[in-house]
């Protein structure tokens, strides 16, 4: 049998082609305190400094064994770019959004003329370049960004959920701004060396907003991003938090190559609902990967693998206090699965 490089293996797996074995990856954030201590690259500096960010991302490969390098570690850089208030992160916690920047149409107009080459998104692109220069020929360089619906919610605050129901013009305009940003940002990350794209859109859940609004606002936006990436031969994985069981078909309708499911979704059911997209997941990052033993993780990994998951991975972002040994066990289970 042909043996593929990690880069070839992941690209083939995400596009439904035969592989020699399962890739060992995480499509969600990979940073942990033990990795930080092992390589001397710590949050919060690893969120703001390209060299430190790349060093910690590299630890996911060199320390844990993930067959990819991935940045960033948080989902607030996009909101920060547009002017939202941010609570700084710590060694154990990621930064978070504290205030919003869009109240009405005038704010949307004001923000349309954005420069992608500034702020923390530019730092992330620089980290991608560092990683691509070192690993890009053999190891996948995975880029991640907050999706347009959740970005719009960060920008508008909780009023966003009412806006999509009561002010179609405003909601459409803000979604268009967020989507244009996502496409521009994604293209810049690819230009810097990213070869796999992950959209993290946690509040774009049909369970939260209903199928009708998901189909109206989210599917077209995701499809525009996916189409832009596919033009560059870059596969796309979509992660939405929570129980997405009833909306798997809608998620796939955007054309994504992979759908990352969290621990509340049954793998076999998710697989039965897709036509082409591969299912990624879904070990519980808290109650399995963080709080249990390697032996327990082996058992749970086997359950997920036996259910037919295409790529074994965490069901959401890895908790910063997760032991290296636990993540290494998940990697070992993936690598040994044919």
From TrEMBL:
InterPro entries on file: Methanogen_methyltrans, Methylcob_mtaseMtbA, Mtase_MtaA_CmuA, UROD/MetE-like_sf, Uroporphyrinogen_deCOase
Keywords linked to the UniProt accession: Metal-binding, Methanogenesis, Methyltransferase, Transferase, Zinc
The keyword Zinc is assigned to this record: yes
SUPFAM superfamilies: UROD/MetE-like (SSF51726)
GO BP term, pick one: one-carbon metabolic process
A GO MF label: dimethylamine methyltransferase activity
Residues covered by the Uroporphyrinogen decarboxylase (URO-D) domain: 5-336
Required cofactor(s): Zn(2+)
One Pfam short name: URO-D
Protein name: Methyltransferase, MtaA/CmuA family
Source organism per UniProt: Methanomethylovorans hollandica (strain DSM 15978 / NBRC 107637 / DMS1)
Upper classification of the organism: Archaea, Methanobacteriati, Methanobacteriota, Stenosarchaea group, Methanomicrobia
């Amino acid at each position: 049998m042909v043996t593929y490089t990690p880069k070839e293996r992941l690209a083939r797996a995400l596009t439904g082609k035969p592989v020699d074995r399962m890739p060992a990856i995480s499509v969600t954030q990979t940073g942990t305190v033990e990795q930080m201590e092992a390589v001397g690259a710590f949050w919060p500096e690893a969120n703001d400094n390209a060299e430190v960010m790349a060093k910690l991302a590299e630890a996911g490969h060199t320390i844990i064994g993930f067959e990819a390098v991935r940045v960033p570690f948080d989902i607030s850089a996009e909101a920060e770019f547009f002017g939202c208030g941010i609570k700084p992160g710590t060694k154990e916690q990621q930064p978070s959004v504290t205030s919003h920047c869009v109240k009405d149409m005038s704010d949307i107009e004001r923000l349309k003329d954005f420069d992608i080459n500034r702020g923390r998104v530019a730092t992330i692109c620089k980290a991608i370049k560092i990683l691509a220069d070192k690993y890009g020929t053999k190891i996948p360089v995975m880029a991640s960004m907050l999706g347009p619906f959740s970005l719009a919610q960060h920008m508008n605050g909780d009023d966003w959920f009412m806006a999509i129901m009561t002010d179609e013009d405003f909601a459409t305009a803000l979604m268009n701004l967020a989507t244009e940003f996502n496409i521009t940002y994604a293209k810049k990350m690819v230009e810097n060396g990213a070869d796999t794209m992950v959209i993290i859109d946690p509040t774009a859940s049909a369970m939260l907003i209903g199928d009708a609004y998901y189909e109206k606002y989210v599917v077209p936006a995701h499809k525009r991003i996916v189409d832009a990436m596919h033009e560059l031969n870059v596969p796309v994985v979509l992660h939405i938090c929570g129980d997405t069981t009833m909306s798997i078909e809608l998620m796939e309708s955007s054309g994504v190559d992979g759908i990352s499911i969290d621990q509340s979704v049954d793998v076999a059911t998710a697989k039965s609902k897709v036509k082409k997209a591969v299912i990624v997941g879904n070990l519980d990052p808290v109650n399995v990967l963080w709080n249990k033993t390697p032996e327990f993780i082996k058992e749970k990994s086997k359950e997920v693998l036996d259910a037919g998951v295409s790529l074994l991975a965490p069901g959401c972002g890895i908790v910063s206090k997760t032991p290296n040994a636990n993540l290494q066990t998940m990697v070992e289970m993936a690598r040994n699965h044919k």
